[in-house]
Automatic annotation (TrEMBL):
One of the Pfam families matching this protein, by short name: DUF4177
Organism for this UniProt entry: Viridibacillus soli
Protein's name in the database: DUF4177 domain-containing protein
Top-level taxon in the UniProt lineage: Bacteria
InterPro entries in alphabetical order: YjzH-like
Length: 38
């Protein structure tokens, strides 16, 4: 997924863990991308 976005000019900016489970593990990770406006 990251490689495909990179080929389209996007750069991975932030990995944000979303709600944590009982063991402290992230249940989901939100990927935030950015790219320069043209």
């Amino acid at each position: 997924m990251v490689k495909e976005h990179a080929q389209e000019g996007w750069r991975l900016h932030t990995l944000e863990p979303l709600p944590f489970g009982a063991g402290g593990q992230a249940l989901k990770i939100q990927l935030i991308f950015e790219r320069e406006l043209k």
